[in-house]
């Protein structure tokens, strides 16, 4: 279990550094290092990442690095989408969810490898609130379906479309992730009950504690290390893990051995 505990700290580090990536690490850790069923891992991931993000988000809020207007416009529709995504999850296999999850990881890698705009185009019209709400809804469905917080989509949207600084985007993203993760988690409890599956609550508690510590370390490191370099390293990691998950999931989906 030592590797699993290291993974828990890495989850917090990712959230603290980039405001994203927590769930992308959590599900593989729970499935491949802890040995949990896919659906149990996805539900546990929502609880773990939601708890870590909430602790980190409160810390950012106390330092006035959370933009509550963006939390409302993006987060509330995201909560509704997460509930729906968790409902959809009961109609598909855990293997299919992992395959979709791997696709999301590869998408996240592409987004992170892309060079961010250094300056916003001030002539560009402000994105309409209803469009921001739709963005939140779509990311929310993804959150509930495959157990990802969606921070890797939320942070770029808040920076490039919402005009937030990176530091404000990270803090705001953590609050949105917490809202969406727990919405999906409570719906997922119904899915687990129907399948007669149980969560490992002590494990979830340990992961939240270790991950919360990791967020503080990540925030401290983020002040000293170039974030673009960190994003590039993290993107390569996502590609490797995503390809490995597809390699293991696709044969089973296609009826192979």
Description:
With 257 residues, the protein is mainly alpha-helical. Helices cover 79% and strands 0% of the residues. It has 10 helices and no strands. Helix 1 crosses helix 9, helix 3 crosses helix 9 and helix 4 runs parallel beside helix 8. The longest helix is centred in the C-terminal third of the chain and has 29 residues. The radius of gyration is 17 Å and the shape is globular. The two termini are 28 Å apart.
Q: Short description, anyone?
A:
The chain is mainly α and 257 residues long. It contains ten helices and no strands.
Features:
257 residues; mainly alpha; 79% helix; globular
Can you give the helix content as a percent range?
over 70%
Low-pLDDT residue intervals, each spanning 5 or more residues: 117-124
Instruction: Please tally the helical runs, counting DSSP H or I stretches of 4 or more residues.
Output: 10
The SSE string, one letter per element, is HHHHHHHHHH
> What is the radius of gyration?
17 Å
Distance between the amino and carboxyl termini: 28 Å
Question: Describe the biggest sheet?
Answer: none
For the residues shown, what is the average pLDDT? 82
Shape: globular
Relative strand content: under 5%
Class by alpha and beta content: mainly alpha
How many runs of DSSP E, i.e. beta strands? 0
| Quaternary form | single chain
């Amino acid at each position: 279990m030592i590797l699993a505990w290291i993974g828990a700290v890495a989850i917090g580090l990712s959230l603290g550094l980039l405001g994203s990536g927590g769930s992308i690490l959590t599900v593989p850790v729970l499935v491949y290092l802890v040995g949990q069923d896919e659906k149990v891992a996805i539900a546990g991931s929502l609880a773990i990442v939601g708890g870590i993000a909430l602790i980190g988000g409160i810390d950012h809020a106390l330092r006035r690095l959370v933009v509550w207007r963006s939390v409302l416009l993006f987060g509330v529709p995201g909560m509704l989408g997460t509930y729906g995504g968790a409902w959809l999850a009961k109609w598909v296999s855990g293997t299919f969810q992992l395959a979709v999850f791997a696709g999301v990881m590869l998408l996240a890698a592409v987004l992170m490898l892309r060079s961010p705009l250094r300056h916003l185009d001030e002539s560009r019209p402000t994105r309409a609130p209803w469009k921001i709400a739709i963005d939140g809804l779509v990311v929310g469905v993804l959150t509930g379906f495959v157990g990802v917080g969606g921070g890797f989509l939320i942070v770029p949207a808040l920076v490039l479309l919402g005009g937030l600084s990176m530091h404000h985007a990270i803090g705001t993203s953590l609050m949105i992730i917490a809202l969406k993760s727990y919405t999906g988690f409570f719906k997922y409890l119904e899915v687990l009950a129907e399948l007669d599956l149980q969560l490992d609550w002590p494990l979830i508690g340990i992961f939240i504690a270790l991950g919360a510590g990791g967020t503080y370390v990540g925030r401290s490191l983020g002040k000293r290390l170039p974030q673009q370099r960190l994003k590039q390293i993290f993107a390569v990691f996502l590609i490797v893990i995503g390809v490995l998950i597809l390699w293991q999931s696709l044969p089973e989906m296609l009826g192979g051995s």
